[in-house]
Amino acid sequence: MTVARLVRSLLLLCCFSAGEPTTANTAASSSGTAKSSSIRQPTWGTGRQNRHADIRPRHTTATAQRLLADYYAGKLRPALPAAVGKVIREASAQQYAWAKPEWGRYRRRAVVLADPAGAGEFAIWAWDIVPEAAVQQALRVLSGMVGELAPDIRQRLVSGVQPSKVALFKRPEQVWTDIPEHSIWKGTEFGANDWLSGVGGTRAVPVSSSDTRNVMEAADDPYREESVLVHEFGHHIHNLVLPDCVARAADVAHAHAVASGSYSPGRYMVSSVFEHMANGAAAWFQGTCRSDVNDGIISRPRLLARDPTLFSLMQYIFTPSVARMRYRSLCPACSTKWSPEAAVPLLEPGPPAPLIKLPLDQCISAASSWRPVPRNAPDCSDMKSECRARAIAGQCDTHPDMLTLCQLSCGVCRQVSSSPGCLDRNASCFVAASVQGRCQSDAAGMGPQGMGCLLSCGNCTAARI
Ligand SMILES: [Zn+2]
């Protein structure tokens, strides 16, 4: 590995968003504006990479990695820790010393429906200066992610002592520390990184943020080959929403990923459990088309192919819906400006990390009946030898026959219940049953009275299995 490549590989993803754009997007990436900063500019190598030096974060890898790890581990302290309560009081009074009158008010702009019972709230906050279109786009993305959280985990999102938020800020008028809850970092080494496109929420400050340029995939956004919002909300779920036993499973999955040697050395995705989870969520929701920070793990089939243990954890946290939220289809410019999946290389520096069983059994309660079994389902298999290659190329989303012929590689196998014979016979069962309500019809694929989808239709007892 060359020095330039090593530097590139170590540069950080969105919370410290850095790194190079994907090759296919190079031409579109060169129109950014220079930002003033006193932080030393990194070495960018030669040739194409230098074209982006003007819009890339000025930061050293070691410093950024340290700050990032300390921030998410809760070790980074604001200059005035007591200011957290002060900021919250000021929020209600709308008194911020740094705020400019033209920003308007910092206020709740939209509510994400995270709790049908209405017992809690998860909201998007922003100043008036943030365009409504950005709020609505963020609402679409977050609703898609929240809607796929397993019900018991989704409930935790709205039941925290402090309400979780996602806050948007508008570049270039604002920086991330202009989010009131994050203003506690002003005047610190961490807060000096005003190029950040967003940060994930932590237990200390349960607020994730994103630059609206990224939300709207604006032409001058340096990180438009990835969704900062999807990545940061991945952090949010990990840091704030997962039960402790699931978080411990995340630690196991990360340690296993590192020990397996299946990632390129120093790859940002495995630099910490936090980035492992956030990049895993980005892959799960197709929230990136980069390969430099994640070895090209940009989709569910690729995650399954390279890191099936993390896949199984994502499968535990999110429902296994075939019709999942796909950021690539949802964002304003991805369908035309992002590289096709087949054009994003999947780097395979070693054999895939073998699947290990995570200690999730202890997490399963009455409210959580989900048991992820990504590879061992008796009726889950690939029927064609080319399934893996086609899945990695993104064909699970574009070729309907893939979900029938290549269930294993596409990662759409349903869970296996405790009853060996209680299975779904078709990959579409979950969506057909839970979204379309087709269990009582005799529609194709469901069988008489949904008997082809015993598990999704809840007919295992009726089948006396
Ligand atoms: Zn991150």
Automatic annotation (TrEMBL):
* Domain of life, source organism: Eukaryota
The lineage, from the top, is: Eukaryota, Viridiplantae, Chlorophyta, core chlorophytes, Chlorophyceae
Extent of the signal sequence: 1-19
The answer to whether the entry has keyword Signal is: yes
Q: Where is the composition biased (Polar residues)?
A: 39-48
Return the protein name.
Answer: ShKT domain-containing protein
Query: What keywords does the record list, in alphabetical order?
Result: Signal
Which residue stretches belong to region Disordered?
22-59
- Compositionally skewed regions (Low complexity) per UniProt: 22-38
Q: Does the keyword Signal apply?
A: yes
